[in-house]
Structures are given as C-alpha cells and as structure tokens.
C-alpha cells in the first residue's frame, strides 16, 4: 500500500473561496473554531445557520450573522460546512438543506460517518469533501491562534463539479489544517478507525482496567492505592504523551529497567490470536457492514419518537455500581481536597 499524500499550505489556493458564500451549519465545538479560523484567514462572507439556542447567541457575540431559517441559509451556500452532531445531521440536512441547495454546492463534513453510511441525500452534481480535524474544537482554534496547524484528514468523497479536491484543500488551508500537513484519507478510513477505536479498542481497555482492579483488590491492594496507581496519578496520560513524542514503544526508555523488561517480555509472550479474531469480528461484522449504524439510527429514532429513556444513562449507572466504580466514588469523596 502506498503512503498517503500529505498536503501543505503551498498545495492549496485560498483564492478559490473568494466570492463564495460560506455557510456553517452549527456553531458548536468544531463550528465555532472553524468559522473563526476561516474568518481570520480573510473570509468575511460567512453565515452561521443555527437553530435558536445558546450556540446562536455565541455566534452573534463573536460577530457573525446568524440565520435561523435553514432553507434560506441553504439557498445562499456555495460552500456548506455541516458541523452539528453526527446523529442529527441526516434529519436536519435531508429535510431542510438538501431540497434548497445549489446544484454545484461544495458540502464539507468533519467526520466520515454519514457519508460512508450514505445517510445524506445530495445530488451527483454536488461536491462532498471531508476535512476532519483530529483535534477537539478548542485546540483547532487555539493552535490556529498560535500560528500552528493541527492534524487533519482530507478527502474528496463525491466529485460533482470537477473542482472538489482544490476546494477541499482551500477549506483545509482556510481553517488552518495544512500548516501541519493534512493527510489524504477517506470517509471509509476515518469511520473504520473511529468506530473501531470506540467499539473494539477502548471497550477492551475499559475491561482490562476493571479486571486488573478487581484482581489486585482481591490480592489486598487498597482502593486508594489502586485508583492512584492505575489512573488518578495521570501516569497513563503521561505515557501516551511520551508515546506521541518519542514513539509508542521507545517511550518505555523513560521507565525503570524492571518496567521496560516486564512490559516488553510480557507483551512478547502474549498470544494475540483471540483478540485479533475479536477485533476483526467487530470491524467487519459490526462497523464496516453498517450493522452498528443501522442499530444506532433505529435507537435514535425510537428515542426521539417514543421519548424512551436513553440507554446511556443505564450504562453509566451500571458502571457506577461496579466494584471499580464504587471504589473510585468513595476514594474521590475521601480525597476531594487532594485531587
Ligand atoms: P456539537 O455538539 O458541538 O454541535 C453543536 C451545534 O449543533 C450547535 O450549533 C447546535 O445548535 C447544533 N445542534 C445540535 N443539535 C441540533 C439539532 N437537533 N438540530 C439543529 N442543530 C443542532 O458538534 P461537534 O462536536 O462540533 O461536531 C460537529 C462535527 O464535527 C461532527 O461531524 C463531529 O463528528 C465532527 N468532529 C468533532 C470533533 C470534536 O472535537 N467534537 C472532532 C472532529 C470532528
């Protein structure tokens, strides 16, 4: 497999966005950051499409014009950023925007999910590009303000006008992403990695921590010592920070020799075949085949139509009742002044 292209400022022409009406649907984490960055890159022709809520007030406070009538905003857009939560995008876009958009509009998404699972109804004449920062919105803004870039995935998902890649790069540069290098990707790749991390990697990490906690507690370790040892000291956060700086394995050199040998020798002896099979099962039979997406959409529909209790609350309650959850609650209450 060849290495993906990495695009820098010199690959992009901001002039392509000149004279274009740029509409942001949403002024939340990403919307507020990207709209402000784009304005500071020299574009004043920005309109914020937002329902009546505190995000709209915030956009006005930042000096933007806000349109609550989504149809009116859609009619004007030459470039449309869709920056509202993924689960509400299909309903809002398909109902209010799709019927009113120009035939040659460039639609920009910051996540591959709705494009990969074909949940947005756009026309074949329209461009759809992905410009997906790998950063939370506040960092997208603060890094731009410091004159630095941020990691970002850029791709053309649907080519309508023949100009989609140039527009994707202009947008990437305008929001400040090509300063650090925007990596050529795809909605499939972004969705696969995102959902795999969420549904395979991190669930296993949660499970490993819970099991480790219970085994060590049974062996006589106190809740207080365990909470600090395992996460409250922030050691795992530091390890990942070092991994980003020095290398995933080479960060081990900051640990004691006993630790380095224990970790590398321990990992070498483990048989990964069961977890690999489990990971493949999640990736192919739950993520990429759309099974999760279908189930999640059905759940969202039912929650909205029938006003059911969100299962997330039950899942939080279940975790709070677990041995590790109870222990942490007690330790945090006791050590409230220290943490
Ligand atoms: P957010 O949760 O901050 O979105 C808030 C905005 O959505 C507000 O403008 C609000 O008025 C609007 N909104 C919420 N519910 C609505 C509804 N039912 N109807 C109409 N408008 C509604 O969204 P966030 O986190 O900025 O995500 C936007 C996109 O960026 C998503 O595709 C997400 O996957 C992607 N993304 C988010 C990152 C993050 O740091 N949060 C990182 C990279 C990508």
TrEMBL record:
Ranges annotated as spanning the membrane: none
InterPro entries the record matches: 6-PGluconate_DH-like_C_sf, KARI, KARI_C, KARI_N, NAD(P)-bd_dom_sf
Matches recorded under PROSITE patterns: KARI_N (PS51850)
Gene Ontology process terms (BP): isoleucine biosynthetic process; L-valine biosynthetic process
GO molecular function, one term: ketol-acid reductoisomerase activity
Domain KARI N-terminal Rossmann: 4-185
Pathway the protein acts in: Amino-acid biosynthesis; L-valine biosynthesis; L-valine from pyruvate: step 2/4; Amino-acid biosynthesis; L-isoleucine biosynthesis; L-isoleucine from 2-oxobutanoate: step 2/4
Domain of life per record: Eukaryota
Signal peptide as annotated in the record: none
Keywords: Amino-acid biosynthesis, Branched-chain amino acid biosynthesis, Oxidoreductase
Keyword Ribosomal protein appears in the UniProt entry: no
SUPFAM superfamilies on file: 6-phosphogluconate dehydrogenase C-terminal domain-like, NAD(P)-binding Rossmann-fold domains
Family statement: Belongs to the ketol-acid reductoisomerase family.
Protein's recorded name: Acetohydroxy-acid reductoisomerase
Organism for this UniProt entry: Fistulina hepatica ATCC 64428
């Amino acid at each position: 497999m060849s290495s993906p292209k990495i695009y820098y400022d010199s690959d992009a022409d901001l002039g392509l966005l000149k004279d274009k009406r740029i509409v942001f649907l949403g002024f939340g984490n990403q919307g507020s950051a990207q709209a402000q960055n784009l304005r500071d890159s020299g574009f004043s022709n920005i309109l914020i499409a937002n329902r009546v809520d505190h995000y709209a007030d915030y956009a006005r406070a930042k000096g933007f014009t806000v349109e609550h009538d989504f149809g009116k905003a859609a009619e004007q857009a030459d470039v449309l950023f869709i920056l509202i939560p993924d689960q509400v995008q299909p309903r809002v876009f398909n109902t209010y925007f799709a019927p009113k958009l120009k035939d040659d509009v460039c639609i920009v998404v910051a996540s591959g999910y709705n494009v990969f699972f074909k949940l947005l109804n756009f026309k074949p004449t329209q461009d759809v590009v992905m410009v997906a920062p790998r950063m939370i919105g506040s960092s997208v803004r603060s890094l731009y303000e410091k004159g630095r870039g941020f990691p970002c995935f850029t791709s053309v998902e649907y080519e309508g006008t023949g100009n989609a890649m140039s527009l994707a790069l202009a947008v990437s540069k305008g929001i400040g992403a090509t300063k650090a290098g925007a990596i050529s990707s795809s909605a499939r790749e972004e969705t696969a990695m995102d959902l795999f991390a969420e549904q395979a990697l991190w669930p296993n990490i949660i499970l490993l921590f819970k099991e480790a906690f219970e085994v060590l507690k049974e062996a006589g370790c106190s809740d207080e010592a365990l909470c600090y040892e395992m996460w409250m000291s922030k050691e795992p956060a530091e390890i990942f920070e070092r991994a980003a700086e020095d290398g995933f394995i080479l960060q081990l050199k900051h640990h004691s020799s006993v630790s380095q040998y224990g970790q590398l020798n321990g990992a070498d002896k483990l048989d990964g075949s069961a977890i690999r099979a489990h990971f493949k099962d999640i990736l192919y039979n739950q993520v990429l085949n759309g099974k999760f997406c279908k189930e999640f959409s059905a759940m969202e529909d039912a929650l909205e139509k029938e006003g059911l209790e969100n299962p997330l609350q039950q899942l939080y309650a279940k975790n709070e009742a677990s041995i590790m959850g109870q222990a942490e609650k007690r330790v945090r209450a006791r050590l409230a002044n220290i943490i």
